[in-house]
Design a protein that fits this description.
The chain is an alpha/beta fold. Helix content is 63%, strand content 12%. Strands 8-9-10-5-11-12 form a six-stranded mixed beta sheet, sandwiched between helices. It has a four-stranded antiparallel beta sheet with strand order 4-3-6-7, with helices on one face. α17 links the parallel β9 and β10.
């Protein structure tokens, strides 16, 4: 289905608003036609021959031209009052319908993004995604409002004025109408150019959004290395590229109006030529001729606006294609047709000959291990060995390309994704907090949790004391990504969030790697509370944090090269022993 049809479907729920708007547009168009009709009696009233009309008041007769110049002005006031009301109804209801349709599109594209798999976000720039949700949808919004308003109002104006033209003189109407086909072909060419340039320009706007997102999120690093001027130069270059596409789009857009004026001038010239001969021969009165000429002038004006609306529509269609292209993305991870529900798992996790590859690069190869309820499984090894990928497979952020992962003996691909994720709590090395209160950030683990439950989780995470020292306690807003609190405090809030979730399986991905010694000890105490009675997978570079793990898995180049307890692995003198010596020596 084309983007235009999809836009129409989004407008369908608001058909009543569109009907009211259409009636208003019909009123505006009808008043334009009526105004052109009034020109004839107005100018015919200037006839020097004395004519009487009446009796109107107390048997009095009025001279016809006097009567016309009394009545017609009142008629014009009434006409334009009705026209103004109709224009208001037309524009208000059509624009609100357009806003509601665009609001639904923006909601749908955000919901669609949230339903896509992690792999999609790894392949896409955050700035580009933001640009599609914001800039592209805004471009669609301008197009929808302008398109519907213009097509309704100007379309009705064209039809009503066309009626007046043929009513006054069908021969002259055909002459004036002949020039319009000459404008259609160049208008189509211009529209296609604008659509193409708009789509490319929106892509460049995505590049600008990417630069902004990276710059604002990494401003500390930029300032630390004194690279502000380099980033300013990069932004200016992206901005200039965007201007290049917009300049060409503007060139074609502004070309359409003078082109239409040149083409319609032939129509005016032909009507003056043939209409003048009819006037001189007495086939038309001066009033009828001026009425026709007024209708033709009014007729060409909405035609030019329709061409302009067509250009805006093409610009919005370029943006719409990018938006619907994103909305048509299919999630890679979906529930199977025969997916099974799961209440609360015991927490037994088994990996059976698991393999995984990104595109054509093998990351994990033939991994087999078993984690029983309550066990702590530590994953160690050189960087790039596949540790984070392995725990991502357990959460089913990706699907295995070979083998299977079982939770309580059930292949996780047969479980409902929502039920699977309820069984897993994650504490990542990157502390993701939101620009909200402390309580609401902790409550991310359980959105229905009471204040007492939130406080209990904070105490278990050793966060309660520092929270009480905050200006508004649990209601303190911690700013974007938690910038108003320290790294150790952020990590403890993430742990409190995981405690509140109370999931049977826990994943700790470098949870203490970025902390100082004092913060690490406090966080480690919180982690000990969190790991209690849970099956835990710990990724750690600091071997001191996993010495008491039930099982240590050493990964290298996507394979398990060693497995056992701390003392057993030291005695082997292999990879683990080498890592231990490097850290503790």
């Amino acid at each position: 289905m084309g983007p235009f049809k999809r836009l129409v479907l989004y407008s369908k729920p608001y058909w009543l608003r569109l009907v009211i708007s259409a009636l208003g547009a019909a009123g505006v168009g009808g008043m334009n036609g009526l105004f052109a009709l009034l020109v004839a009696p107005l100018f015919n009233g200037l006839n020097p021959k004395k004519e009487l009309v009446g009796p109107l008041l107390n048997g009095m007769y009025f001279e016809k031209k006097t009567f016309i110049f009394i009545i017609v002005p009142f008629g014009i006031i009434i006409l334009f009052t009705i026209r103004g009301i109709c224009r208001y109804l037309n524009e208000y209801f059509v624009r609100t319908a357009g806003q509601l349709a665009i609001q639904n599109i923006r909601n749908d594209i955000y919901q669609k993004n949230m339903g896509l798999s992690i792999g999609f976000f790894n392949r896409q720039s955050t700035g580009v995604l933001m640009s599609r949700v914001l800039n592209d949808v805004n471009a669609m919004q301008d197009g929808v409002s302008n398109m519907i308003t213009g097509f309704f109002r100007d379309g009705f104006s064209v039809f009503s004025l066309l009626f007046v033209l043929f009513y006054r003189n069908w021969e002259l109407a055909i002459i004036s109408f002949l020039v319009l086909p000459a404008a259609v072909y160049p208008a189509q060419l211009i529209g296609k150019k604008i659509k193409k340039l708009s789509k490319m320009g929106q892509a460049k706007m995505g590049d600008i959004s990417t630069v902004l997102q990276e710059t604002f999120s990494g401003v500390k690093v930029i300032k630390a290395f004194g690279l502000e001027q380099r980033e300013i130069k990069k932004f200016r270059e992206r901005n200039l590229e965007f201007y290049g596409y917009m300049r060409r789009s503007i060139k074609y857009d502004v070309l359409s109006t003078p082109l239409m004026e040149v083409i319609t001038s032939f129509g005016f010239a032909a009507v003056l030529c043939f209409g003048g001969s009819s006037l001189l021969s007495g086939k038309m009165t001066i009033g009828e001729f001026l009425s026709f000429f007024t209708a033709m002038a009014l007729f060409y004006d909405p035609v030019k606006r329709l061409v302009s609306s067509y250009n805006v529509l093409q610009r919005s269609m370029g943006a719409a294609e990018r938006v619907f292209e994103l909305m048509d993305q299919k999630p890679e991870i979906v529930d199977s047709v025969d997916s099974l529900p799961m209440m609360r798992a015991e927490g037994n996790v088994t990996l059976q000959n698991v393999s995984f590859k990104y595109d054509h690069d093998m990351v994990l190869n033939n991994i087999s291990l078993e984690a029983k309820k309550g066990e702590i499984i530590a994953l160690v090894g050189p960087s790039g060995g596949g540790k984070t990928t392995l725990v991502s497979l357990i959460s089913r952020f990706y699907d295995v390309t070979g083998g299977a992962i079982l939770l309580d003996g059930i292949d996780i691909r047969k479980l409902k994704i929502g039920d699977l994720l309820k069984q897993i709590a994650l504490v990542d090395q990157e502390t993701i907090l939101f620009n909200d209160t402390i309580a609401n950030n902790i409550r991310y683990g359980n959105t229905t949790a009471t204040d007492d439950q939130v406080e209990k989780a904070a105490k278990a995470a050793y966060a309660h004391d520092f929270i009480l020292d905050m200006p508004a306690g649990y209601l303190t807003n911690i700013g974007d990504r938690g910038v108003r609190i320290s790294g150790g405090q952020r990590q403890r809030l993430c742990i409190a969030r995981a405690i509140l979730k109370n999931a049977p399986v826990l994943i700790l991905d470098e949870a203490t790697s970025a902390l100082d010694t004092e913060s690490e000890q406090m966080v480690q105490n919180a982690l000990n509370n969190l790991m209690e009675n849970r099956t835990t997978f710990v990724i750690a570079h600091r071997l001191s944090t996993i010495l008491h793990a039930d099982k240590i898995i050493v990964l290298e180049n996507g394979r398990i090269v060693e497995m056992g307890k701390h003392s057993e692995l030291l005695s082997l003198g292999g990879v683990y022993s080498k890592l231990h010596s490097m850290q503790f020596n």
